[in-house]
Amino acid sequence: MPLAEQSLFLALLLIMVSSIVLGMGLPSAVCYLLLATLIGPVLGNLGVVPLAAHMFIFYFGMMSMVTPPVALAGYAAASIAGTNIMQTSFAAFRFALVGFTLPFIFVYRPELLMLTPTGDAAGPLEMFVPVLMGTLGVLCFASAITGQLRNALTTPLRVAMYAAAALLLAPGPDVAVAGLNVPILDGTGVVLFGVIYVLNGRR
Which whole number is the average pLDDT over 23-28? Predict the structure, then answer.
């Protein structure tokens, strides 16, 4: 993966696809062992915290269970509920979309795994901002997907909510605020979310 060796995000995308595809045909444990052996060192060379790298691989191996066209969990749920298999699988995939962001958060914000970017144990103050911003970003993404917040979101507010989620989940430069390092993109995302929250409540 010559290009992936120069771009962490591209490497993560390729590993995500590999994990999902292999997870469709292999048990999750076998998929993890195979990818951890073959691709894990690539993430290590790109500076990813080892625990975050392995969580990324294992998590997406599990997400193959709700990813069409295989989506074994969707097949099992459809047989229990007596519903259409493909419709159930795609519904499961849509509801699980938020979960596809979590492994990326683990890599870019290892504080969610109680680790610093260097792999050391993170303290409460070091974890506070990343955990808060990650939680709010996931909330924004889930709200944008479902089209609901306090009330139903209009199309412009829904688009703005996607933008807020992207700002909150994307890595960016930090600025010191009250002794805490707050990423600039996160601050913008929080403001945008606040505006959406107020406007949505007025409907």
Answer: 77
Beta bridge partners of 121: 115
Q: What is the dihedral of CA 86, 35, 11, 159, to 10 degrees?
A: 30
pLDDT higher than threshold 50 for residue 202:
yes
82-129 pLDDT, tens digit each: 888 888 888 888 888 888 998 999 998 888 888 888 778 878 888 888
Calpha distance 79→57 (Å, rounded): 29
- Same structural domain for residues 94 and 154? no
Per-residue model confidence (pLDDT) at position 56: 92
Last residue of a domain, one of 62, 93, 117: 117
Residues 13, 94 within the same domain: yes
Identify any residues that bridge with 148 across adjacent strands, giving them in sequence order: 152
Q: For residues 30 and 25, give the distance between their C-alpha atoms in angstroms, rounded to a whole number.
A: 10
Specify whether the CB–CB gap between 121 and 114 falls below 8 A.
Answer: yes
Q: Are 188 and 167 in contact (CB under 8 A)?
A: yes
Q: Which of these three, 117, 150, 182, is where a domain ends?
A: 117
